[in-house]
Write a structure and sequence with these properties.
The structure holds 2 protein chains of 2 kinds. Chain A is 26% helix and 23% strand. In chain A, α1 packs parallel to α7 and α3 packs parallel to α4. The longest helix of chain A has 15 residues. The termini of chain A are far apart. Chain B is an alpha/beta fold. The chains are: A alpha/beta, B alpha/beta. The interface between A and B is large, with 39 and 45 residues.
């Protein structure tokens, strides 16, 4: 039976790609390992290798086709003895073809630091957030990925201020492990876009030292999991120096990178540090969800005279959102946003937790429960006023986070609601969170470990006594 | 930096007993002019008298927490400072009072910080281990062993980024030399040719553990070999030798040749901190260094031999004592920070 070649996925965030070029023609003999096509993603150009032998029977997706969804059949391979007449009964290949990067032949740096994670189709974001009230009416919106929004934010700030530079693993020549820094080296040169060795503790300290002398570093951690090696410099040096120096010597620095669970990378690469950093006085902690917020808040973080932890989410990098086309779109740190209004229950979340909250709100609406959804956007300083005002209106609250429950951000929100709106509550605050286990690898267990929409819906109903 | 109480085992004591004095011999350094000798004497004396006074105030309960004295090591910061120019930066660990005074920070402000008063360099919020002066390019004062090495490398990074010719001095001890981030910093400093001088103050004890018991390579000047960073061992008890080594290292850095390591062989007369009775070494060992190699006595003897009168030297003594007494007086009478200071300087 002819074998189908499927569009491969090369990262957890890849949902579609462009079929750039066919390197084999219909009728050509194919051996296992032959490069048959080149595909492009927003991160890189990749080669598609054949894993089966035979003859290229039919090209199903012509070269030059954009936005081919992952797992779409792109060609069929005929085995020995088969002919074009057999094409109709093609079966999908058991797995997408192996692909490798064309641009870089070297393997990903660092054991356990995958450039390309296991393939998995991800769900699209639930809803596109309403534009911020501070955006003037009639402002043109451009559609861009969060990855692009981050890159533009950094590029704009680097153009604006010569003291801003970026350092981290693979940020320059490789164009970013997750391609967030794409094009920065070309525009700003190696002086301001600096590849570091794999040495988180050391380069975090170097960044803080440079900031103490007045520069404004953006320190990219390939993921925040690796920043644990650097957490002493972040907390003891960056966060405390202003206080310890009696206000003389501060530290304007941004530590940024993907935080939380990616996909199928298991316990050491899937941890949410929201609660860790948001406990520390002296730090600001930002964790946006929408593309516009990613851009506006990163610009604010870079300008902030204090150390800012900017928590991104790998699952969101490829997601597209509407970003206001303004010369200088800066969103103030410390302001939450009501993304969806409702009078029955308040859902409070941030970063990727918002995707569960927003979908849950859709579900709840079908059952007549109007949820108000608050995107905190900043965890420290936390916009308690917005939370309290909403809870006073709805009388019910559910927090949604990917991190663990004990001493989590949800616990903090619940405590503040209890302290400031106890008399308005019609039910105890409910928390939906990651389960109290290290992140498992197996797909089914991983899914169980993370929060999901059904849990948010159930919690919202429980606090509504429905 | 905490100083846990040490229980000295017999074995350890015996092993330490084998190390008597600083026996490595160094060739004679270039002579100082009389003016240089006098300046070095004055600056070293200021540190010693200051530290002695801090020790007294600690005993009286006026200074709290940890207090790590620099007595015995004065030639290092004074000699290095003579090799610097205005704009060069200094950063160190928690044994930092001497560095601050050498950088030109006022004794009053330092002492008042030790007593936790509003006139202290950090308004009383930093204490002995955390003081800074932007004006004097002193970047702390860091309580986490080894952290200042990455930070000092960052200061050098900023100099290179700005394209100036300033040099940063990152001081740390033989104990900190075993921290991982030291080597992460060495790697980046050489990779990027950063103008940083790593000054390893080898006072022979990492808290209460002798170098031979804590370091597999006790020649600290070799710690940069695998990064191709040149290093030298220096007689850290002779201020002239320190300055000569400093001149060489500074020239290396200013010429854009990257980092340089100076191992300063020295000795601290007091315990690791005020709460350390220093039972891991013998009284004779301390006395021998103090008698044979004291950095201040060396200069004083040379000056006397060069016909400087006792009276001239006494005048220096008197000037230094006055500064120190004034600082102690200020530090005990200056008010504590206002309660509102609790909430300031968290963010700016």
């Amino acid at each position: 039976m002819p074998i189908q070649v499927l569009m491969p996925a090369l990262s957890p965030t890849m949902e579609k790609g462009n079929l750039a070029k066919w390197l084999k023609k219909e009728g050509e003999t194919i051996k296992s390992g032959d490069v048959i096509a080149e595909i492009e993603t927003d991160k890189a150009t990749m080669e598609v290798e054949a894993t089966d032998e035979g003859t290229l029977g039919k090209i199903l997706i012509p070269e030059g086709t954009n936005d081919v969804a992952v797992n779409t059949p792109i060609a069929t391979i005929l085995a020995d003895g088969e002919s074009a007449a057999d094409l109709g009964k093609a079966a999908p290949a058991p797995a997408p073809s192996v692909a490798k990067e064309v641009e870089e032949s070297r393997s990903p740096v660092g054991e356990g630091k995958p450039m390309i994670s296991a393939p998995q189709a991800t769900a699209a974001p639930a809803a596109v957030a309403e534009p911020d009230p501070e955006v003037p009416e009639g402002t043109e919106m451009i559609s861009q990925t969060i990855r692009e929004a981050l890159r533009d934010a950094m590029a704009e700030e680097m153009r604006r201020d010569p003291d801003v530079f970026i350092m981290g693993e693979e940020v320059a020549e490789y164009q970013g492990a997750y391609k967030v820094t794409q094009g920065l080296l070309q525009e700003f040169g190696a002086r301001r876009v600096i590849d570091t060795p794999i040495t988180e503790h050391g380069f975090a300290g170097v960044g803080v030292g440079a900031a103490m002398s007045g520069l404004k570093p953006i320190v990219e951690f390939m993921t925040f999991n690796f920043a644990m090696q650097a957490i002493d410099q972040i907390i003891n040096s960056a966060a405390k120096t202003l206080y310890m120096s009696g206000g003389q010597m501060g530290c304007s620095i941004v530590f940024r990178g993907p935080n939380g669970a990616a996909s199928r990378v298991a316990a050491q690469h899937s941890q949410d540090y929201s609660a860790w950093y948001s406990q520390i006085p002296g730090l600001k902690v930002v964790a946006p969800f929408s593309a516009a917020d990613y851009k506006g808040l990163l610009k604010a973080a870079i300008r902030d005279p204090n150390p800012v932890i900017f928590l991104e989410n790998e699952m969101l990098y490829g997601h597209t959102g509407e970003v206001p086309k303004l010369d200088d779109y800066v969103i103030p740190i410390g302001k939450a946003r009501i993304v969806r209004s409702g009078g029955h229950v308040t859902l409070i979340s941030w970063s990727n937790g918002m995707s569960y909250a927003l979908k849950a709100a859709d579900e709840l609406a079908k059952e007549g429960i109007e949820a108000e959804v608050i995107d905190l956007r900043t965890l420290r300083p936390m916009d308690t006023d917005t939370i309290i005002a909403s809870v006073k209106k709805t009388g019910r609250a559910v927090t949604v986070e990917e991190g663990w429950q004990q001493s989590g951000v949800g616990a903090e929100i619940a405590a503040r609601i209890m302290e400031q709106a106890f008399d308005y509550l019609d039910a105890p605050v409910a928390r939906v969170s990651g389960k109290d286990v290290p992140m498992p690898y197996a797909a089914n267990l991983e899914k169980l470990a993370l929060p999901n929409v059904a849990e948010v819906v159930a919690a919202a109903k429980a606090v509504s006594y429905r | 930096m905490a100083a846990p109480k040490k229980t000295v085992t017999k074995e350890a004591g015996q092993e330490n007993g084998k190390e008597k004095g600083l026996e490595k011999s160094f060739s004679s350094p270039p002579e100082f002019t009389k003016a240089q000798e006098l300046a070095a004497l004055r600056d070293m004396l200021l540190i010693r008298r200051f530290e002695e006074k801090a020790g007294q105030l600690y005993g009286m309960g006026a200074i709290g927490g940890f207090c790590h004295l620099y007595i015995g090591q004065e030639a290092i910061v004074v000699g290095m400072q003579m090799a610097l120019k205005k704009g060069d930066q200094v950063i160190t660990g928690y044994r930092d009072h001497g560095h601050m005074l050498a950088c030109g920070m006022e004794a009053k402000g330092v002492m008042a910080e030790l007593t936790g008063r509003q006139g202290g360099y950090s308004k009383g919020k930093g204490g002995s281990m955390h003081m800074f002066s932007k004006e004097q390019n002193f970047y702390g004062g860091h309580g986490i062993v080894g952290a200042q090495v990455s930070l000092g490398t960052g200061l050098a990074f900023a100099n290179r980024y700005r394209g100036n010719d300033f040099v940063s001095l990152a001081y740390f001890g033989d104990g900190a030399s075993n921290q991982g981030q030291v080597y992460e910093s060495f790697n980046m400093a050489q990779l990027w040719k950063l103008p940083v001088i790593y000054i390893i103050e080898n006072n022979r004890y990492a808290m209460g553990t002798s170098v031979t018991r804590s370091s597999s390579q006790t020649d600290f000047s070799k710690r940069g070999i695998s990064f191709n960073i040149p290093g030298e061992q220096v007689d850290g008890m002779d201020v002239r030798a320190v300055k000569a080594a400093g001149d060489k290292a500074v020239a290396h850095c200013r010429a854009g040749k990257g980092p340089f390591i100076l191992e300063m062989q020295t000795y601290r007369y007091r315990g690791h901190s005020m709460s350390d009775p220093a039972k891991y070494r013998t009284r004779e060992e301390v006395e021998k260094v103090r008698h044979d190699q004291d950095p201040i006595e060396q200069v004083r003897n040379r000056l006397l031999a060069a016909k400087v009168t006792e009276q001239e030297l006494k005048a220096i003594d008197a000037e230094v004592r006055e500064i120190v007494n004034e600082s102690a007086d200020f530090a005990q009478h200056d008010p504590e920070p206002d309660a509102s200071e609790l909430w300031t300087d968290v963010y700016r």
